[in-house]
Design a protein that fits this description.
The complex is a heterotrimer of chains A (174), B (473) and C (128). Helices cover 60% and strands 4% of the residues of chain B. Chain B contains 21 helices and seven strands. Chain B starts with a strand and ends with a helix. The mean pLDDT of chain B is 86. With 128 residues, chain C is an alpha/beta fold. Chain C is elongated. Chain C starts with a helix and ends with a strand. The model of chain C has no long low-confidence stretch (mean pLDDT 85). The chains are: A alpha+beta (174), B mainly alpha (473), C alpha/beta (128). The complex binds iron/sulfur cluster (SF4) (2 copies) and copper (II) ion (CU) (2 copies). Chain B: It comes from Candidatus Hakubella thermalkaliphila.
Amino acid sequence: MKNKIIVMLSLGGLFILLILAGLPSPASAHHSPACLITRAKDSPKLPSPTSAQAPEEKLFEIKARNFVFTPNVIQVNQGDLVRIRLISEDVHHGLYLDGYEIQTSALPGQEGTLTFVANKTGRFTFRCSVTCGEFHPYMVGYLVVEPNSPFFIYVFLTIALALANLAFVVLRRS
Amino acid sequence: MSEDKLFGLIDLNFRFELTKFKLVRALCKSRWLPLLLILFNLFIFVIILLAGLFGGYSAGNYNFGIMMVWILWWVLLILMLVPGFARMWCLMCPFPIFSDWAQRGKLFEVRQGKLGGLNLKWPKRLSSMWVLNLAFLATTFFSGFFTVRPFATFILLGIIILVAFLTGLVFQKRTFCLYLCPVSGFQGLYSQFATAEVRRKDPEICKKHTPKTCFVGNEKGYGCPWLRTPFDFAKNTYCGLCLECFKTCPHDNMALNLRPPGVDLLVDTKREPRGLDEAYKAFIMLGIAIVFYLAFQGPWGVIKDMVRATTLEGYLGYITFHTVFNLLIIPGIFFLFAYLSKLFSGNKEVPLKKIFTNFSYTLVPLGLGVWIGFSLGIILPNGSYLLHILSDPFAWGWNLFGTAHFPWTPVLTHLLGYLQGATLIVFYLFSIAYGFRSSRQTYPDLPQARRGWIPMLGLLTLITTAFLWLFMG
Amino acid sequence: MSRKEIIAVILFILATVITIAGVVGVEAYRRRELYTVELTARAPEHGNWYPQEITVPLGEEVRILIRNIDTVSHGFALPDFEVAVPEIKAGQVAVVQFVANKSGTFPFLCTVWCAGRHMEMRGELIVE
Ligand code: SF4
Ligand code: SF4
Ligand SMILES: [Cu+2]
Ligand SMILES: [Cu+2]
């Protein structure tokens, strides 16, 4: 009896975990205050297979300073047309975007720009690509393209494995 | 538990003996084997030290010392050497060669009789991983300098080599490696997970053989420099893989085995008990991984400014937080779950300390997975610097292999998150597989072990989810 | 000592003393053969150009080795002789070459926005 209650309790706990995992991740909880312009794009033909929202055009002004990008996390939806203006506040900095493999760089008073369609979902790191000081290799920011399905799939997988282990442990005889 | 199978697939007692091949056995018995590798690494580290010295203040990403140590060496250790071959690095480590030479008076030959130096015994009370834990934690205070300033790396390596030498003069054999080396602790801990081991083959032969030449040494080699008893030890933690026991065993009774990963995690004998010191090593490694990820692969400039000491207050804040987080918060959370485990199990007799220590070993596979994930985040974006520094090691405008102008090129970084996540989940699987076994060892009967396991399973799942969020969310 | 022991000791010496001597020796020789002066580039906050004054003889071919030992990129320009290197990355080395065919004092400067006091990153070439 006691046994069953405990099993039920823990299943409940894991279920709550599951739901928590379903909430938007903190990186995207605030709807990117850094996004300057958001407007529906004129051409509705851009692909948007999973997200319900129509693709938009988003402009971000990213300021680079030793050794941080501001904003450091930017969030868009799949299919959005993203434009980035890179503005340097001190020395020569760059911005290389993982996954999309594009880059730009900016000197003080001379900004760099990037334009791309966010067609891959997930979280991508953007890195400074110009040696700007000793912490240069650690100068990074995140681009989150919603829905961040890879993350959720991995979390669900983990929880499924936990449940499988639980089932195995409970059903085990000897 | 003779038929205990990992994931129902691999028998935990399965061993594949590599030394059954003549060539491998001959290599293990040759006195050239560790020596040549050690001399080669000595050569590499001499260049690293030179580059660190000449590099001084300049940017680490074009410095041979920084790149070799923190990109190549560290990543090789975590990605391959430790999980695959236990303390394979200690086999070829050049740091203690000066003290070895001083003690033995010979590089190649075997000295008969007493070793040189004072040969003192390390105090019993310090014979644990505690000093290693604190030494490693203290080293990480300065990681904002070591990993980016060539001269800081020079100082760090210089101190390690110097202390290794001095310790060797005063204390016996490899006391430094056992109780002081900052690189030793995590290698020892995670070696318990490794897929290779050195063990005796047939215990019966060992029983009959006196004197135990593998411990006292003979004309073919030295008694175990790591103060193990090769004839019966059962845990990789402190075996330096130095291969001396292959040379000193007259019956060819030592074996180099491949084995299922992680079997040492279940070892808890009188001679090699589980201990709070190793538990804390597991916590510290996990905690450092979190802090490092936040500081070095996260986008938060505030943390970076603290770690690189732009202001003294910030730096002290980092040190304080780092210490408290690793020594109190993480163990505290773990303690809470250990307590829950005891409550759930309904067992009043088992001491809480035993539950706490036993379960802490479940963090070993997971911790290793986390570090592998973190290291992937170092090597994939920055590995291309290696081509540059190989051609121009001292930043003097050399171009030895014609690759000095190879541009910075991130490799496979579009897969980085997936790789990190997948590694984590694989190692999580090992953690929960061994976790339930630890539970069985902790509680006397199956129902208690079952119930006691549940909170721990929850905790491990939580930790994994948290890291998935760090890596991908 | 047996022969093997001697070989081991020789290898040890090769790996340490000989390696150090070799590296330092080769570099010293290379510089003597190839370059007239060596110039170190650092942001003004960290030491500026070193040396800040270079003296070369009139009419000679001059080769300058510019070594950026800083953590940021710098540039180099010597307008009067029309030589420039747009970017020297941190930890990298550039070489410029020209004939010192007029005498006088000529400024050289950094051309990359490298630090707050970038504008002060200047030096002088004296031809006599
Ligand atoms: S313990 Fe440290 S010094 Fe000793 S062999 Fe291993 S890495 Fe080298
Ligand atoms: S048991 Fe001792 S002698 Fe044998 S390999 Fe390990 S450290 Fe060396
Ligand atoms: Cu930068
Ligand atoms: Cu400059």
